[in-house]
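Long-time lurker. I teach an intro course on protein structure, and each term I like to show students one example going from raw sequence to a predicted 3D structure in C-alpha cell notation. This year I'd like something fresh instead of my usual example. Would anyone be willing to generate the C-alpha cells for the chain below so I can use it in lecture? Attribution to the forum is fine with me.
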Amino acid sequence: MLDIIRKKVSEGTRLTREEGVWLLKNASLLDFAELAETERFRLNPERRVTFVIDSNPNYTNICNVDCIFCAFYRHEGDKDAYTYSVDEMIPRFKAAAKRGVRTVLLQGGVNPAIPFEYYTEMVRRTRAEVPEIHPHFFSTSEIIGMSNVSSLTVPEVLLKLKEAGLNSIPGGGAEILSDRVKKKISNKKGTSADWLNVMREAHKLGYKTTATMMYGHLETDEDIIEHLSVIRDLQDEYHGFTAYIPWSFKPGNTPLEKIIPTYATGTRYLQMIAIARIFLDNFPHIQASWFSEGKKIGQIALSFGADDFGGVLEEENVHASANFVHTTSVKETVDLIRSAGYTPAERTTLYDIIAEYGDGEYPAAAIDTARLNVHFGASEILTSLPILQEAS
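-- Reply from a regular --
Happy to contribute to a lecture. Here you go:
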C-alpha cells in the first residue's frame, strides 16, 4: 500500500479515504515526512514560510452551547462573565494596530443577548476607524447564533456582514466533522453539516475562510479522515479555504478533562500535519502551530508539510482558560522560521506576501526576546522522539 501511495503523491494523484486511514494506522514518521514534503514542495516550491502579526481578543465569554471541551465559556450571571460593547472593543483594536498588529481574529461565545446589529456595527466601525487591521471575525457557531437572534437565514447574515465590510471568517467550531463525535463533545452546537453549510454559503459570497480541526479527544483515525474528506470536497466546490489548521485538545479546566486528562503527543501532531498535507491536495496552505503545540514542535512541523507558522498572537484567551500558554514575539517568530531552514515572510490574512526577511532582517514591529533556536529536519526525527513524546 505504501508504494501505491508514494506513487500517487509523486504524481499529484488524489488519495482515497481508505488510503488516508491506512497511512494513519501504518505509516512511520519518516514515511509521513517524506510524503508530506513531496506534496508541500509540489504545491509551494519555494523554501518560504509565512506568518501573520495578529491578535485574538474576545468580545464576550457568555455562551449557551456548553461544549465539554471548552474552559473559556461562562453563563449569564457568572461572576466572571463579560460582554464588551463596540465602543470598548474599538480602542483595543486601535491599540493593537499601533503595536503592529495587522489582523484581528475576533471570536466570542454564542451569546443570545447580543442583537445582530452589534455584529454589523463591529465590522463597519472596525473598517472605518481602524483601517490598518483586517477584521477576521466570527466563527460558524456565532454566525448561526446571529441567524437565530435575527430571524435571518445564514446566507442573509453573511451578506449583511459582507456589506458591512467583512470578507473572511475563521474556521473555529469544526472540532471534528464527525457527528458521532460531535454528539458527545458539543451536542448543542449543531451537526457537521451546519459548519459546512456556513462555510459553503460564505464561499458562495466570495468570503475566504480557514478550516480547522481539534483532535486528541474522542475521535478515531476514521473520524480524522472523514473530517479531511468533507473539507476537501467543499474546497473542490469554491476553493474558498486559504489554509488548514489543526491543534490538539487542551483538557485543563474542561468537563472533558475527567475522561481525557492528558495532551496528545507531539508525534500525533506531526501525523496530523503530514496527513493533512498529503490528503488535502487542493488546500494551498497548512499551518503549523507553535502556540498550541510548542515552538520546537512547530519548527519540526515545517518538515512535515506545513508552510505557514501562524500568528504571533499578541492576545489569546481561550487556550489560556485551559491553563495552556505559549508566548512569542515577531522577532522570535522570524528567528524560529529562519533557524528551521526557511525564509520568513510576513503575510496578510489572505496570504498576500507583505515582505520576506533575509538574515538579520526583521519587521518594524519586531521586539527582542530570549529564544531557543532548534531545527529538526526529517532525517533527525528518530533521535527527536523523546522530545516529541514530552512536548505538546
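Some talking points for your students: The first strand starts at residue 48 and ends at 52. The two ends are 30 Å apart (CA to CA).
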